[in-house]
Amino acid sequence: MQRKRKKTVAILVPLYNDSHRIPTFVAKVEEIQTKISKGIALKILFVDDGSADGPIKVAKKLKSKIPVCMIVLSRNFGKEAALTAGLDHFIGDGVILIDVDLQDPIELVPKLIDVWLTEDKEVVLARRSIKGGEQNFRRKTSRLYLKFLKQISGLDFPSDVGETRFMSAKVVREINRLRENQRFVRGLMTWVGFEPGFVDFERRESPEPSRFTKRKLISLALSGVFSFSLAPIRLITVLGVISLLISLCLALVLIVLRINDVVTLPGYSSTLFILLMFSSVQILSIGVIGEYLGRTFLEAKNRSIYVVSSKNEFRN
Prior knowledge:
Oligomer: single chain
Number of strands: 8
Helix content: 40-55%
Number of domains: 2
Distance between the termini: 29 Å
CATH superfamily of the largest domain: Spore Coat Polysaccharide Biosynthesis Protein SpsA, Chain A
Strand order of the largest sheet: 7-5-6-4-1-2-3-8
Strand content: 15-25%
């Protein structure tokens, strides 16, 4: 009788100056391997996003019972590009995205796989029931942003869900067909659809500050808005119509005052206010159009999303 082939699930982990975390992460994966269904084989896929602390040297010294692969990018392209590189080079039946700091616990891996197998879901999301370690302001702004993004894009962005998730090979193939350079991976993963399953968990407090600075978070948020919605540029049209109506109303008031011989003093303040208001609308409009034109310019160059320096496999 022919033995049934094991399904392979890759754990995709982006790295950026995280060499000191690699041994602990691999050890944690080995610990939860006994909780994985017998029909599943795990492997770890690290993507080194231009780290300066030599993660490849650490990986070579590993004595892991689980196959480990490391893709090394030629420089730091950013987390979105690193995730894309991992999905492009992924081989198997499913992939789990998780960060190396384990703020989202490694115990999620068997739970995500179980939902995939029992509920036959192509996508399984890790949903945070408590966001330990995250500032209340950041949590609230994140939820408001996702609600706003959902409204303007028409996509269903679940609340309290990050990038930690399981995706089947079918879903990964669809995502890999989307080759835009300016990437918002979470948006792409939502855009391809598929009804998700959920695994709820309590998020651990991170002992280190987040590497996502306010500037990076704002940049990522803008990528989500401009990549998945035309609402900002349509807003310009609305502002233009409102400005036109205000102008017509002011013109009508002046005509009525002149007909009725109402003497008015020169309104320097009101004139200055009107000029500033319309100038601000014009500058805002140019800025929004510039965002779309700039992204079109970058996409037209058709440059690679990332460049791979090497691909290494370690087996013991």
